[in-house]
Amino acid sequence: MGTLLLEQTLNGLQFSVTLFLIAAGLTLVFGVMNFVNLAHGSLFMVGAYFAAWFAGMSGSFWIGLLCALPATALVGLVVEVLVLRRLYAKDHMVHVLATFALILIFNDLVRIVWGPLPLPLDLPSGLAGAIQLGPVPYSSFRLVIMLSGVLVGLLLWLLVTRTRMGMWVRAGANNREMAIAMGVNVKWLYTAVFTFGTVLSALAGVMLGPFVAVESGMGDGVLILAFVVVVIGGIGSVLGAAAGALIVGVVDTLGRTALPALLSAALPPTIATSLGSALGSMMIYLVMVVVLFWRPSGLFPANS
Amino acid sequence: MLTKKSQSALVWIVLFVALACFPWLATWAGQDFYIGVVIRIMIFAIVASSLNLILGYGGMVSFGHAAFFGLGAYAASIAVVHGANNVWLVWTLAAVVGGISALAVGFVATRTRGAYFIMITLAMGQLFYFLFVGLRQYGGDDGLRMPTRPALGFGLDIASESVFYAVVLIWTFLMHLLLARLVRSRFGLALEAVRENESRMGAIGYSTRQYRVIAFAVAGVMAGVAGALLAMHNQFVSPKMLHWSQSGTLMIMVALGGMGRLHGGFLGAAVFLLLEEVLSSYFSYWHIFVGAILLLVVMVSPDGLAGLGRLFKRKAATPVDEGHAP
């Protein structure tokens, strides 16, 4: 029980890290442009597809990763310039509908380009094994994901709080009109932020690709989780995204595994497994509802 | 020259008669299949209209509406599985379940604003979705079969397709009548005023949140009944009916038909389901066309397809905006 709990906690943390990468881009776009982007999950999917495609052609996971990031960035750039740029000034309803339309388009587009079957994306050969972590052997690729995620998170924090670009981003999130008046080129700042968010999301797609099937619609479930993260953390706050990702990743993983086990101690086994798995999947949404009821703008509101 | 009101009443009477005659026409033409399509259109017209009350008239971007629809369907199916054999009881149950769940969601969600509102309605919808995925005694992921349609009484056999068609037709028009009366009532006008300027309405002394929550509950009742009808039509319900992408589909219908327009839900459901019927018979990847059409409509005409016509008319004469009086 103890080692299982440790392993599941580690899995939860690794899931948190990937969620953070997706949610960070989402929360920046949300906070800076006040734009609800449902298509963020589609860019996650496109990233995974590009990685599987390039890796399949070159035979190397790392070449796949290196080519997938700029390729997905280009897709994000095109979408921003052609479609999204025209929508920022409109209300949330239009954002939701237009980006929902983009999800439908992207989900069919990948099937048209790469076929209806999932693409395989293998673990990099050097990292397929396990490392002994105290009493438990743990996948070294998962550890690399965790470390690189934390590294990217730190980099992002430095970028937002210590650079001129980051200052513009914060200015844009806090008071758009004032930022424009002070001479920030908001149009291209928006494009840059969106493309940057796309790259983070694609990176998460490449990292999760080996664990889940690279297939059409793979970004839809992740998108909803990322939204839960952003909302729990507070829209526009990178720190909030980190806290939210930690909560959601750990609660979700532990809820699914530990809850049925805990309930079976108190209830008959058939009811316990059924109720446990239902409650396990519902946990994060319950957490979100409770957080929002208690703090309607999330844990770390960006504009306060 | 007819007045606007009697013009609209005339359209409804013509539509009612046309829909009432449709089964005979379809049978005569040997196209019985389309009777089922029209039943689906009418049921989705009820749900889309109920969402329009929240979305269009209330101005609240609710992304969890499929939950109330699915809850009504599950309430009906579970009641029948447990031996309920009276359709009036089943409808009442579905309406109550839909209404109470919508009341709860509305109560929690209206505490928040903007993007938080969208996300909390989405999350609460997913909450119900996972509830039914997890409930294995009611089929879980595989869904639940409704063994028979509950009895209607009056010596009518609801298992016959023509009787069921008539029942759905009557429900659809009753619900539209309800919506029409509601949006023209004091309540409907206040709801629209809250959408336009909440703080001003609050300052006059309206408890604005109450109006929003009641709109949710009424829409939930309508969606619950529609869910029971769909469960009876398919004699099957699965958790997919509550999934967030289904909520998105309902939003597409309202957006296509026209937000805050009385006929928006009806028009949108008809256009979307016919589009689905036609496109899916020719292309295996038909969602891409729906996506492209939706993108075009929201970028060009925020009023939906009904507004598209006005877009061209605008050049000839200044339009009179009935829905958004200052």
Q: What do you see in this structure?
A:
- The complex is a heterodimer of chains A (304) and B (326).
- With 304 residues, chain A is an all-alpha fold.
- Chain A has a single domain, classed as ABC transporter involved in vitamin B12 uptake, BtuC, CATH 1.10.3470.
- Helix content of chain A is 75%, strand content 3%.
- Chain A is built from eleven helices and two strands, in the order H-H-H-H-E-E-H-H-H-H-H-H-H.
- In chain A, helix 2 crosses helix 8 and helix 9 crosses helix 11.
- The radius of gyration of chain A is 20 Å and the shape is globular.
- Chain B is mostly helical.
- Chain B is 73% helix and 1% strand.
- Chain B has a two-stranded antiparallel ribbon with strand order 1-2.
- In chain B, helix 1 runs antiparallel to helix 6 and helix 3 packs antiparallel against helix 4.
General shape of chain B: globular
Shape of chain A: globular
Mean pLDDT of chain A: 84
How much helical structure, as a percent, in the residues of chain B? over 70%
SS-derived structural category of chain A: mainly alpha
Domains of chain A, number:
1
- The DSSP helix count of chain B reads 13
CATH topology name of chain A, in short, is ABC transporter involved in vitamin B12 uptake, BtuC
Number of helices of chain A: 11
- For the secondary structure, the number of strands of chain A is 2
Number of strands of chain B: 2
Derived from helix and strand composition plus strand pairing, the structural class of chain B reads: mainly alpha
**Biggest sheet record of chain B:** 2 strands, antiparallel
